[in-house]
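Re: the multi-chain job from yesterday

Posting the exact lines I submitted so nobody has to dig through the queue logs.
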Amino acid sequence: MFLKENLTGEIAYSTMFPAALIVVTCFVIFILSLYKYTTSTYKYWKKKSVTFAEPVPLFGNIKDHVTLKMTQGECLRNIYNDFPHEKFVGMYQLQTPTLLLRDPEIIKLFLVKSFAHFSDRGFSYDGHREPLTKHLVNMEGDTWKTLRQKITPTFSSGKIKNMIGLLHGCGVQLLEYMEAAIDSGETEFEMRDLTAKFTTDVIGTCAFGLECNSLKNSQSEFRRMGCAVLNSSASMALAKIVRVFFPKLFKALKLRTFPVEVQKFFIGIVKQTIAFRNANGVHRNDFIQLLLELKNQNEEGITFKLTEELIAAQVFVFFLAGFETSSTTLSFCLHEMAVNQEVQSRVYDEINKTVTKYGLPLSYEAILSMDYLEQCLKETMRKYPPVQALVRVCTKPFPVPGTDVNLDVGTAVLIPVYAIHHDPKYYPGPDVFDPDRFAKDAGDNGRPAGTYLPFGDGPRICIGMRFAMLEMKLALAQFLQNYSVTLSDKSCARIEFEPASFLSCPKGGIWLNVNKR
Ligand code: HEM
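And the result, structure tokens for all chains:
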């Protein structure tokens, strides 16, 4: 028995040994290859003699963001603060060599003066397989330039002024909703949800020509699809990482930026609306109408063909780029009003003076005249920039002036907006909410150009900037004229950001008490 056992043991050992060895060897080879692959680019900045942040294998310099400890903006702020004397710093987003710009003059140079070398964002997309991704934010080179030139007049002050009636309608729905909720005894509200429903309605009506009233009808199809687009499920977040950092793999695996039903829904709405308006001669002061007019000019012989699908992709990006950016800004602003009651009183006084001077409903001119309200929004976007970093890619070799550095085509560039907006050199006491930083008579308060970037800068600056300011000012004026806000038991005095979110998003929402005036 002993012998047998011994024998069996020896036999097992002798057959197991090579198997275990093979497994261990494969594992070691795998780890070494992974290490080699993930660190293969890490000499890039050293070879270029650019000061760089030391990367860690696999993650480069964005480990804290990838592991969801902090937002991208907060992660870049740490790098920004570590190199106070550099104009720019080399870093790695996973394996991708990236230049982080620190100096305002260099930022202006890249975004504005030398735009021809950095005209794209380098976002990969497949307009054939996913037609909704063929929009201004993603498009590149001459195609982007032609489309941007065509669409720009759609956002002129004259065109936006004509939309004030639509914006008003959404504001009135918000007030009606609040009235009913407060009458039924509600006092505490999650402001982000409220403002998101409001801005969904604004984009629904101004971009898609739909009356969705998400405030009354929380199950509205439009709101449901909107939530599906912004869905931050683990699988969509993973697909996003693959799309950004491994675009070839994204294509090879046929992954999707949005679920197919979202694509069908948005393209379907736009096609139906166009068909209805053409058949019934309907005219409405909204973006879809303006794009339709461009399409018709287009058919009279102009080279660039604005198809229905291309129109759908553009109104879709107005939704993508415009809805959450505006809603979080509104909710952050209301939070600051609740914390800083003296600021809220000044805004209330300004609204009352404006109503006395211009009457109700507030006209375009009345909204424009409210300087202090505008300062409050500007300071909100300084403290909580919805887009925490701007992205560019080098499209033509670029010798950085005053240095020996030559940037190669394809080099990624990041502008750390959040870090700049919190640099005490430009904004003393950066955590203090002080709208007077943007007072007209204070000029730029000695700040250099390139240090205030909530909407970006240069030819790729946010096309919807003016529209967004009008929408947000009108919403706040209508709301604060009728209601005041205070902190509630659920409020956090200091806001933390949701690390998984691409845009600045308050962790746990923004809870406030809302009281009738
Ligand atoms: C508070 C509101 C908003 C903020 C903070 C914001 C911010 C931004 C930023 C930072 C960019 C990138 C700029 C750059 O790379 O230099 C951008 C681009 C863009 N935004 Fe906005 N945005 C807002 C509202 C809107 C609205 C309401 C719309 C449309 C109705 C819109 C449409 C776009 C488009 C289409 C682009 C791409 C422009 C291009 O590449 O040519 N945004 N926005």
